Amino acid sequence: MRPAPSARSIAIALLALVAAVVPAAATLFVRRRRNRAGAEGEGS
Protein backbone atom coordinates (compact mmCIF):
# COMPACT_ATOMS: atom_id res chain seq x y z
CA MET A 1 0.00 0.00 0.00
CA ARG A 2 2.97 2.30 -0.56
CA PRO A 3 2.63 5.27 -2.96
CA ALA A 4 5.98 4.43 -4.57
CA PRO A 5 4.66 2.05 -7.29
CA SER A 6 1.93 4.48 -8.37
CA ALA A 7 4.38 7.39 -8.43
CA ARG A 8 6.83 5.29 -10.44
CA SER A 9 4.13 4.24 -12.92
CA ILE A 10 3.02 7.87 -13.28
CA ALA A 11 6.62 8.94 -13.94
CA ILE A 12 7.05 6.16 -16.51
CA ALA A 13 3.81 7.17 -18.23
CA LEU A 14 4.91 10.82 -18.35
CA LEU A 15 8.31 9.84 -19.75
CA ALA A 16 6.67 7.67 -22.40
CA LEU A 17 4.27 10.46 -23.33
CA VAL A 18 7.09 13.00 -23.59
CA ALA A 19 9.24 10.57 -25.58
CA ALA A 20 6.33 10.08 -27.99
CA VAL A 21 5.43 13.78 -28.34
CA VAL A 22 8.87 15.42 -28.47
CA PRO A 23 10.08 13.88 -31.79
CA ALA A 24 6.79 14.75 -33.51
CA ALA A 25 6.92 18.34 -32.25
CA ALA A 26 10.58 18.62 -33.26
CA THR A 27 9.89 17.38 -36.79
CA LEU A 28 6.95 19.76 -37.16
CA PHE A 29 9.07 22.67 -35.90
CA VAL A 30 11.93 21.81 -38.27
CA ARG A 31 9.52 21.41 -41.20
CA ARG A 32 8.00 24.82 -40.50
CA ARG A 33 11.45 26.43 -40.34
CA ARG A 34 12.50 24.70 -43.58
CA ASN A 35 9.24 25.67 -45.28
CA ARG A 36 9.71 29.31 -44.28
CA ALA A 37 13.31 29.31 -45.46
CA GLY A 38 12.34 27.57 -48.70
CA ALA A 39 9.46 29.98 -49.28
CA GLU A 40 11.75 32.97 -48.73
CA GLY A 41 14.45 31.55 -51.00
CA GLU A 42 12.33 29.97 -53.75
CA GLY A 43 9.32 32.27 -53.69
CA SER A 44 6.86 29.39 -53.86
Structure report:
This protein has 44 residues and is an all-alpha fold. Helix content is 89%, strand content 0%. The longest helix has 39 residues. The protein is rod-shaped, with a radius of gyration of 19 Å. The chain starts with a helix and ends with a helix. The relative contact order is 0.08.
Top keywords for this entry?
44 residues, mainly alpha, 1 helix
Gist of the model:
The chain is mainly alpha-helical and 44 residues long.
Strand-residue fraction? under 5%
Major β-sheet annotation: none
Helix content: over 70%
Compute the average pLDDT: 81
- What is the N-to-C order of secondary-structure elements (H for helix, E for strand)? H
- Tally the beta strands: 0
Point out poorly predicted stretches.
none
Whole-angstrom Rg? 19 Å
The number of helical runs is: 1
Report how far apart the termini are.
62 Å
Tell me the structural class.
mainly alpha
Judging from the principal axes of the Cα atoms, what is the shape? rod-shaped
Layout of secondary structure:
Blueprint lengths: L3 H39 L2
